[in-house]
Design brief:
The protein is of the alpha+beta class. It has nine helices and 19 strands. It has two domains: about 260 residues, Aminopeptidase (3-Layer(aba) Sandwich), CATH 3.40.630; about 110 residues, Alpha-Beta Plaits. The protein has a six-stranded mixed sheet, sandwiched between helices. A hairpin with a 3-residue loop joins strand 11 and strand 12. Its EC number is 3.5.1.18.
Length: about 375
Amino acid sequence: MKRENALSILKKLIQIKSVNQNEATVADYIADLFHPYPAAQVTRVEYAPGRTNLVITVNGQADGKIIGLAGHTDVVAPGDVANWKYPPFSGTEAMNKIYGRGATDMKSGLAAMVCVLLDLLAAGTPFNGKIRLFATVGEETGEYGAAQLTKQGFADDLDALIIGEPSNLNVEYTHRGVIDYTVMSVGKSAHSAEPQRGINAIQNLLLFYPRIQALMASKDQVDPVLGGLLHNITLISGGDQINSIPARAMLSGNVRTIPAYPTKNLMTEITQLVAELNQIDGVHLEITYHYPESPLPGNPKAPFVQLVKQIAAERLDREIPVVGDSGATDASEFIHAAKRFPIVIFGPGNDSGHQVDENVVISNYLAAIQIYHQVIDTFLK
């Protein structure tokens, strides 16, 4: 694909304001790119009105392995637009970069994958097996789309998957998971001069705090790449006014997990802690979880990981680190497919995601297209 065509696709993706919604517009644009090619099977999977996942499958000439490519179509809010050097949804090209919200996280990775499939279809080059592109909704707020597609079986037959999240063109094979939780304490209001008539929701909530801190501190295994489990209380509120016994209080916490401590196991222990505290007279705590994300286990010496590393090193003429990521990705959902397959996170984006003046280096974007293409070709052979 010509440079200007590849850049045009990326710029048009950035210009679509898919801030935590409106992903259907992105799906429609990508689907239209594949309309001239009957060999591409385009499947729309609606998550909610205006929020559409896209699955594009290109079949080879014979049975063989199936490689997946995945990218999400939503972006985070741009914040104060006045602080941006260029309008965040302009896709401005300047100083050998493309600027805009999503340029790094992760419309450049998604656009590069789209370009590879369009190139293959236009060339008509025969290959064995299948290539399947996933364009998912809701990654930034909970991997909704990846979860939906996984539950519906779209990833069950994969043999390998590349997720185009920003990695500075390094190879990531593992990452943390996330547990966001909220504990609500329900009490009874009363005048502060007669506290015996009420139930102090704040005092009961504070029973939870030292217990959860101790529980998380007991998880002391350290992952050689990701480090230890992280836990922080990040929100707290309660009460109505200073001379009233508070009837409600709330705190929220964030856990960044590692493969040694599976998400479901940790959630079970936290829930049991809340149940234990509720045995105390007058204590009424309620816990809710917000789209928990599993950590991604992986093997840095897995053949697919090493394949991507080798091809990237040859193309970029540098050593390619094999590393982990402190954040979570759609891999947190795809690992729940019917069979295990290796997952590599590899994309052209940098560390400017979620920031003012988010950008991607044009040469990295174009290199990603070539690397994806060669990985696909080599893997399917």
